[in-house]
Design a protein that fits this description.
Elements (H helix, E strand, L loop, with lengths): L6 E2 L1 H18 L5 E5 L5 E5 L1 E6 L2 E7 L13 E9 L3 E5 L2 E2 L1 E2 L15 H17 L5 E7 L3 H4 L5 H4 L1 E2 L1 E2 L7 E2 L4 H17 L4 E5 L2 H9 L9 E2 L4 H10 L4 E7 H4 L17 H11 L4 H8 L4 H10 L3 H20 L4 E8 L3 E7 L1 H15 L4
Parallel strand pairs: 7-10, 8-12, 14-15, 14-16, 16-17
Antiparallel strand pairs: 1-13, 2-3, 4-5, 5-6, 6-10, 9-11, 17-18
Helix pairs in contact: 1-2, 5-7, 9-10, 9-12, 10-11
Length: about 375
C-alpha cells in the first residue's frame, strides 16, 4: 500500500510565517526557507513567500500544504505580520481569519479563531527567534488569510459561530491523510497486527483526544489503541471480521454522541445532530423548554453537558444516551463480537459507559500486559 503524504496545519503555517517575519526584522534579509518546532518536538521547514517590510513591521506568507488529505485550505497563503513592541507577545487575527461569536470554543467571544496550540506555537516561534538575535523587545503578531472569508463557507465555522474567515487550527502541527480508503486500510492493517500478535480484544478510539484519555486516565500505552478517525462503523466491521472476541471503544462525546442516532461515520460533513440527539434525550427526561432551547444553541457537547448539569439532568440523560449507543453498536456487531464503550468529556470526565463490563476488563488487562511487553 502506497504511503500517503502528510501535510502541515494552518497553525504551523502561521508559526513559520511569524518566525520568518521576525528574522526579516532582525537581519534585514528576506529568508527563503524557515523551520519551526512542532508540539511533538519535530521540526518542519518550508518556503517563505511574499516578504515585505516597512520600518518596525515585516510580513511573510507560507503556502498551506495538506499532503494527500482532501483539505479545502490546501494551497492557500497564510500571512503573518509582525510589529516590534516594547515587551510581550500578542497574537490576533486579521482579514480572512474568523472571529468567535458564540461561547464554548477555545477562544472567548470576540477573539480571533486562532486555537490554543497554534497560538502557543506562534508565540514560541517569535519568542525563540527574538532570543536568537538578542532582541530585548516584544512583538505584535497579526495572522491573515486572503480569501479566508469565502473559504470559511465551505467549513463548519458558520455553525460554530465563527464569522469572517477560517480558523487557525492544529493539535499536532501535522495534517494526517484522511481519505476514506487510506484510513480504512490503516485500521485494517493495525487490527491485523494486533490480532496476529495475540490480542483477542480490540481497543479502538476515534482520535487524539481518545488516545490521550487511554494513556492518562487508564494508564495504557498510547499505542495500544487503534485510531479509527470518523470510521467507527468500519472499525467495528473489521474487528468482527478478523475474529476479535470483543472491542472497547473509547472516545470524546463530540463523536460518540452521534452513535446514539445510529451515525457510524461521525465526520461533520456526513452527519452532525449532536445537539438534536442530546435535546431529544433531555426532553424524554423531562427537561424544561428553556433547557432544550439552550441545548439546541450549544456549540459543543461540553456546552450541552453544562446545560444538563445546570438542570440536574446530566446523569439521567447520559444514561439514556448510553442505552441508545449500546443499541446501535449491538446492531452493527450483529452478534459477531461483544463490545463495551466509554464516552468522556474534556470538562466533565467520563459521561457514560455501556456494553459488556467483562469486555472492558479483558481489554484493559490485555493491553496493560501488552504495555509491559508480555502480550
Amino acid at each position: 500500500m502506497e504511503k500517503l503524504k502528510k501535510g502541515y496545519t494552518t497553525g504551523t503555517c502561521a508559526a513559520i510565517a511569524s518566525r520568518a517575519a521576525v528574522i526579516m526584522l532582525m537581519s534585514g534579509k528576506a529568508p527563503e526557507r524557515v523551520s519551526v518546532t512542532l508540539p511533538n518536538g519535530e521540526r518542519i521547514e518550508t518556503d517563505i513567500l511574499d516578504v515585505s517590510a516597512d520600518g518596525h513591521s515585516a510580513e511573510c506568507a507560507v503556502r498551506k500544504y495538506a499532503g494527500d488529505d482532501p483539505d479545502v485550505t490546501d494551497g492557500i497563503l497564510i500571512y503573518s505580520r509582525v510589529t516590534l513592541i516594547k515587551n510581550g507577545i500578542t497574537v490576533d487575527g486579521g482579514g480572512g481569519v474568523g472571529r468567535v461569536t458564540k461561547p464554548g470554543l477555545q477562544r472567548a467571544v470576540g477573539e480571533a479563531a486562532i486555537n490554543d496550540v497554534p497560538r502557543r506555537m506562534i508565540i514560541s516561534a517569535v519568542s525563540e527567534t527574538l532570543e536568537e538575535y538578542g532582541a530585548e523587545c516584544g512583538a505584535e503578531v497579526i495572522v491573515s488569510v486572503p480569501g479566508g472569508e469565502e473559504l470559511a463557507k465551505q467549513t463548519f465555522n458558520p455553525r460554530l459561530g465563527i464569522e469572517g474567515g477560517i480558523s487557525i487550527l492544529g493539535t499536532t502541527g501535522i495534517v494526517e491523510p484522511m481519505s476514506t480508503k487510506a484510513v480504512i486500510d490503516t485500521i485494517d492493517v493495525e487490527l491485523s497486527f494486533k490480532k496476529a500478535n495475540g490480542h483477542a480484544y480490540a481497543l479502538i478510539t476515534p482520535g487524539n483526544y481518545g488516545r490521550d484519555y487511554v494513556m492518562k486516565r487508564l494508564g495504557l500505552d498510547i499505542d495500544a489503541a487503534v485510531k479509527c478517525s470518523n470510521y467507527i462503523g468500519d472499525a467495528i466491521d473489521i474487528a468482527a471480521e478478523k475474529g476479535f472476541k470483543g472491542m472497547l471503544l473509547i472516545g470524546h462525546a463530540g463523536k460518540l454522541i452521534k452513535l446514539a442516532a445510529g451515525i457510524m461515520n461521525t465526520h461533520s460533513r456526513t452527519a452532525d445532530g449532536r445537539a438534536e440527539i442530546i435535546c431529544a434525550n433531555a426532553a424524554l427526561e423531562g427537561a424544561p423548554k428553556e433547557a432544550l432551547e439552550a441545548i439546541m444553541e450549544s456549540v459543543t457537547t461540553d456546552d450541552a453537558a453544562a446545560v444538563l448539569k445546570k438542570y440536574g439532568l446530566l446523569e439521567s440523560v447520559m444514561k439514556r444516551i448510553s442505552g441508545r449507543i449500546e443499541h446501535y453498536i449491538d446492531m452493527r456487531c450483529g452478534g459477531r463480537m461483544e463490545h463495551a464503550f466509554i464516552v468522556f468529556s474534556n470538562v466533565y470526565g467520563e459521561l457514560c459507559r455501556g456494553g459488556n463490563e467483562a469486555v472492558e476488563m479483558e481489554v484493559l488487562n490485555e493491553n496493560l500486559s501488552y504495555r509491559h511487553g508480555n502480550g
